[in-house]
Amino acid sequence: MKIVTVDDYSEMSKFAAKIVASQVILKDNSVLGLATGDTPLQMYRELINLYNEEELDFSKITTFNLDEYYGISEDNPHSYHYYMKNNFFKFINIADSNINILDGKTKDIERECKAYDNKIAAAGGIDLQVLGIGVNGHIGFNEPDVNFEAETHLVKLDEKTVESNARFFASKEDVPTSALSMGIKTIMQSKKILLLASGPKKAEAVFKMLKEDVKRFV
Ligand code: F6R
């Protein structure tokens, strides 16, 4: 594990974009695992800039997003489908058929999750997974006490996560209380992981992640 500390959010975003860009340049058919939230926003903007400067080609890239709220449709502005399209995908030359995001409106959760894991495996696994981290230490929508052997699954959101995500919604009551998320096992199978954290709100979670014992609840 390599820990890189930089001066501020902007530096972090540029650094992260360089890592993702290197992956895309070195392997033009890379499989990228992507995250949403505030943290990677500027990284996506930096990648779009590199694309516009004709330094990056995403035409053979495949992506798998970490998670999606359960019960909301793709065109809902709070969905992660909407976020990815409007913050990244519509600005680059990725093929629609290479974009994978869990279906928050699925009627068959188990099948949707299994099919997602199978598709990741069939694509050869994730070459580089980008992650953020929640204020309570969640990864994807895996709360800190999860089963490390979990693959993609339905998650009941922790009260703290609902509170933290309320900033994106009109009120706390509008925040979905469950989500589909890659599990820790799925995430840990990635060949490389780039975890981004910025700002004082994340300091405790980062400290605990780096310094405290890893607990397994299986
Ligand atoms: C997003 C995700 C979440 C976020 C985390 C941090 O796809 O899976 O785990 O990475 O909630 O969110 P921000 O970046 O908004 O602080």
From TrEMBL:
Q: Provide the E.C. number(s) assigned to this enzyme.
A: 3.5.99.6
PANTHER family membership: GLUCOSAMINE-6-PHOSPHATE ISOMERASE
By its UniProt entry, which SUPFAM superfamilies does this protein fall under? NagB/RpiA/CoA transferase-like (SSF100950)
Q: What name does the UniProt record give this protein?
A: Glucosamine-6-phosphate deaminase
One Gene Ontology term of the molecular function aspect: glucosamine-6-phosphate deaminase activity
Give the gene symbol. Answer: nagB
Residue ranges of the Glucosamine/galactosamine-6-phosphate isomerase domain? Answer: 22-212
Q: Which UniProt keywords apply?
A: Carbohydrate metabolism, Hydrolase
Question: What species does this protein belong to?
Answer: Clostridium felsineum
Q: Name one GO cellular component term.
A: cytoplasm
**What PROSITE patterns does the annotation carry?**
GLC_GALNAC_ISOMERASE
Could you state one GO biological process linked to this protein? N-acetylglucosamine catabolic process
